[in-house]
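DUF6598 domain-containing protein
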Amino acid sequence: MGQEKARAPTACERRRTDGGRFEDENMGTWELCYASDYGSFEDITVPSMRYTFRPIPKHAICQSGLQFFSVKVAQLKRRKDPFLQLTGPSRAVVLIDPVTIEVQLKAKCKTESEDKVLNFSVFEYRHQASFEEPPFITTIYTRCKRSKLEFAVALLVQSVEATVCVRVVRGSWPDHFRGRVMSRTASISHGAILLLDSRYGRMNFNKHGVIELSRCVVSVEPGGQLKVDVVASQVDDDRNVVAQGLVDFRPKMAGVSHGICDLGFCVLRISVLWSLPCHVGEHVGRLTK
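Structure:
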């Protein structure tokens, strides 16, 4: 057998150091390796609802999805709530084993140059269990000198994408009520996915009365069930629940489902926009069709 020629390392690999970290903590894997072709790390290259309102192509199917439930900062002093407020993923995460996860966690200071890096790493998630098993929540970790992050995730063998929208159709949300919107799937009923927590009161609405959720996209098994739960409580005591509503949805391959949640002081219309996950073979770039 002939000897294989040595491959020159890429720019991305040259900047990597031991432990999945980089020499320049202001620029991560995505910016080094993919930004020139697909845009900035902050750009949404492929949005959700890819096939909600358009014909479903033959190659689009239910795919294995990686569900993110929470990210917790461990071993960090002087922090009351260790859970980070998630604003993504912006679309369903398809399991292309392995899934590469990049972490850039900073503590904000007066100026950007003074920001302190708490965690800067890249790691891979590889599914080890049998696909025959029912889904369950597992914890994966990434450690740096200043912090440790705990990711609560679950693998759904087959999944569709669900984009949640909540709109006030009657009444109004009192400013002194804390609001939380959560979703669950029937197969992992104990695992709540926090879509919004107004924490200190006043819910944010756009000009159409739609609640601006921090996170709106989750994955659901096609033969399962999606539950969306809305809770109103006193700002100074979240255990003092004022009103609560729950709406159940049966997953679809495409289209929209609607449900009504009556909290007494206001009525919410909860809509779920369904889509099959984006096919991995499609062109993904700065401009999408």
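The CA atoms of residues 45 and 284 lie 7 Å apart.
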